Amino acid sequence: AFKAAVLIQRWYRRYVARLEMRRRCTWRIFQSIEYACEQDQIKLHNFFSYLMDHFTPSSSKERDFISRMFISGESFKEAELEKYCDYESMEVPDSYTGPRLSFPLLPDHATALLEAFKQKQQLHARYVLNLLHETRKHLKQLPNISHVSTCYSEEVTVCGDLHGQLDDLFLIFYKNGLPSPSKSYVFNGDFVDRGKQSLEILIVLFTFLLIYPKEVHLNRGNHEDHMVNLRYGFTKEVMQKYKVHGKKILKMIQNVFCWLPLATLIDQKVLIIHGGISDTTDLDMLEKIQRNKFISVLRGKKRKESNRNVEIQEINGENKVEADPARNKAALSLCPQPRPTEAPSMANKLEFSRWVRQTVQEQIEWCRRLVDISESEEEELTYSSVVSLTDLDGPCWTRQEEWKQILDILWSDPMPQEGCRVNTVRGGGCYFGPDVTGKILEKYNLQFLIRSHECKQEGYEFCHNRKVLTIFSASNYYEIGSNRGAYVKLGPDLVPHFVQYQANKTAHNLTMTQRQGFPVALISRVEESAFRALREKLFAHTSALISTFKAYDKDNTGRITLSNWATAVESVLHLGLPWRMLRPQLVRSTADGMLEYKSWLDDLAMEQRSQEHIQSSLLEVIYRNRSNLETIFRIIDRDHSGLISFEEFHQTWKLFSSHMNIELTDDGINDLVRSIDFNKDGNIDFNEFLEAFRLVKQSQ
Description:
Blueprint: H1 2-53, H2 60-70, H3 78-84, H4 107-118, H5 125-139, E1 145-148, E2 155-159, H6 166-176, E3 183-187, H7 198-211, E4 216-218, H8 226-232, H9 234-241, H10 246-257, E5 263-266, E6 270-272, H11 283-288, H12 305-316, H13 325-334, H14 349-370, H15 383-389, H16 399-411, E7 413-414, E8 420-422, E9 430-432, H17 434-443, E10 448-451, E11 460-463, E12 468-471, E13 485-490, E14 496-501, H18 505-512, H19 520-539, H20 542-552, E15 559-561, H21 562-573, H22 579-586, E16 594-596, H23 597-609, H24 616-636, E17 643-645, H25 646-660, H26 666-676, E18 683-685, H27 686-699
Parallel strand pairs: 1-5, 2-3, 3-4, 6-10, 7-9, 10-12
Antiparallel strand pairs: 2-13, 5-6, 8-9, 11-12, 13-14, 15-16, 17-18
Helix pairs in contact: 1-19, 1-24, 4-7, 5-7, 5-10, 9-10, 19-23, 20-21, 24-27, 25-26
């Protein structure tokens, strides 16, 4: 009996170990593919930024058009944005049965919205724009770093990424309660993209933010960025739900996103940021950055840098002359810095207060003239502008330094090794080690750091000796059953208490069938999904794989060793996966340890062709480039109409042709665009765009 017990125990341990290994491999596949996609997005954006930086427009009209196309959101000044998104002129028909909002908002409005969204109802565009307008007004008055105290509420609840999964938000509110004066929430960015109900999540969060401005706090995430939204679905979602007013809603959302605070501090001891930190993270600089200038964090701000340099030099009292000394001298002579009058005695408080107001107002007017802001474009004074103006004698940073600060806190990830290095896996931000964490915590007298940005199987994870906590609130992120969601509650003692959940009923039922370990049925389902995605990735690189396999097949036998297969696949895909462990799921076992790679690739092609009836070589190219093609299409489609106009195509082709040194007349471009417009409706839709790509590839 004793021997039998030991045998069963040994068998069970091996079984659990194998399950755990399968679970980890599945997780690595999902994460590697996700990060490779993010890297592609940043590379694509860098390519367009390079084109913009090296393109010389032939006219001011051409310059303005291309600027509006690729710098969406920045071309609207305050008054223009208000006029463009005029919600008051919209009429709500009597037939509308959804929730109605009136401002200031009350708790009943939030309850009505939650019930309406549970019933799959849609909020009228007038109310959406009105809500965005009020949210923007509120956010403009907030500091870059929000401060929360546990003295005024029993506890603070911190939620991580939601990514458009409204069911997770409903479950959080069901388990933890709605925001209220006694229940504070911090939502740590990435509210949108990937999921199908991103807009509803924004509406709910913004509603509670306006009802309980002291209890609800929102941080910006790396997906609160219109360039990221073009690729990951939020832009498409808004345009599908609001076909008439979608462009106005998107424009307002872009502007709201750039006003979201960058971080939150709880009791001056716990720092909450979306991504992470770097060895150059400076909270003092973050507090003073004009965050609204960074509409897309993916793009470093190079334009107007000369204006910024002039401003810095004048503030510091320097007279460094750049490319055009005469021009700089003239510009500075037109707007000389006002010399403040002598300060009155502090004894007369009323007189001293008037002197301060007058001096600050003079400095504001001088700065406006310096950066060429006319009085007609005057904006209300915001928190960040007050900070920057009251610190004129302090250090001045370049726009690139400010951009780097924001990029790091939104895109960075922790690593177990010491030091700080570039995050080549995501393509943005950095990897920071426990030594970097320790220095930042010591410098600012913090206890620990809470961040999100990474999906974790249990919904949360500690690292760096429990000094960094990752919290992720979107359950079933990759696939049903792939991960739990979680949120963390902090009381006055700042000891974290976690609540885990899975919003999907199917996953919940499967989990309950087996208390110990990870259920077999669930692992199999998630594993199957991961390997399906991996096979698609392999198929998309068929041509490159064949070339690499042939390099190992010196005798042209059509066969390579399984070890060479693993090495070749990694050299092509660069996913960092344990290919030797994954081999049994991807390659049929062979007696002699050799693989007939052509038949293996044919099997991959057959699997994909069963879903898409297209020639194999063309399908490979489309699989490999579809995400990039779709993103390029949305970038060119400046008005998000789902169609590329002839003018949009014309100007974009000028960018490409200048980069590739191809001379093409305007008539030649017109002939090209007409040939792509297969149905002759005067626009190019996405199917026509893909078809043109397919035909060009076929002709090659």
